């Protein structure tokens, strides 16, 4: 089993290095999904070692710390205003259900949103632009867009960022509370 683990770790490291280079290109979303290893059918022990490797790489310079379900649940339940939970999925995904207290800033259709001035941001999204002194906690469905959103936020001066890499898929798997917006 340790030989399989070593091979998967090596493949995952290569994939992560490749995705770091690909992040600088417009085709990041397509390229990163094409280069990610298929982990279906792999034992839980191997997946956890890959998760540990992902955490190691998330501590690379400039990357936001990675959080897990228990930390995300703690943040969501605390309602602490030093955190802003940011769902970077598209509006239709958000309105189907999201982590309680999350705001929706879709990374694919509005990648420059956090670069807008406060007035234009409010006109566009209907709520105040997050303060750069707050800690933004990013999530999506599976973690890819959350990483993109987190990186974009750093370019717009948001120094305090967290990445819930398990994202909404992990939230649902762990039976986290889901908020569904009321229809107007």
TrEMBL record:
Residue ranges crossing the lipid bilayer per the database entry: none
Domain Rhodanese: 79-180
InterPro entries: Rhodanese-like_dom, Rhodanese-like_dom_sf, Thiosulphate_STrfase_CS
PROSITE patterns, A to Z: RHODANESE_1 (PS00380), RHODANESE_3 (PS50206)
Keywords carried by this UniProt record: Transferase
KW Transmembrane helix (keyword) present: no
GO MF annotation, one: thiosulfate-cyanide sulfurtransferase activity
Any Gene Ontology CC annotation: mitochondrion
Listed name of the protein: Thiosulfate sulfurtransferase RDL1, mitochondrial
Organism whose genome encodes this protein: Pichia kudriavzevii (Yeast)
Biological classification of the source: Eukaryota, Fungi, Dikarya, Ascomycota, Saccharomycotina
């Amino acid at each position: 089993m340790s030989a399989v683990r070593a091979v998967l770790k090596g493949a995952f490291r290569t994939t992560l290095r490749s995705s770091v280079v690909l992040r600088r290109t417009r085709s990041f979303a397509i390229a990163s999904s094409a280069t990610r290893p298929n982990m279906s059918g792999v034992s839980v022990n191997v997946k956890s070692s890959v998760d540990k490797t992902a955490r190691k790489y998330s501590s690379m310079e400039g990357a936001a710390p990675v959080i897990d379900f228990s930390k995300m649940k703690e943040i969501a339940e605390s309602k602490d205003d030093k955190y802003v939970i940011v769902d970077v999925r598209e509006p239709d995904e958000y309105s189907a259900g999201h982590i309680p207290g999350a705001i929706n800033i879709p990374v694919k259709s509005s990648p420059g949103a956090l670069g807008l001035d406060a007035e234009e941001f409010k006109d566009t999204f209907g709520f105040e632009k997050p303060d750069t002194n707050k800690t933004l906690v990013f999530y999506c469905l599976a973690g890819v867009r959350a990483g993109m959103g987190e990186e974009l936020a750093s370019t717009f001066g948001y120094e305090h960022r967290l990445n819930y890499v398990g994202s909404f898929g992990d939230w649902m798997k762990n039976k986290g509370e889901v908020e569904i917006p009321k229809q107007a």
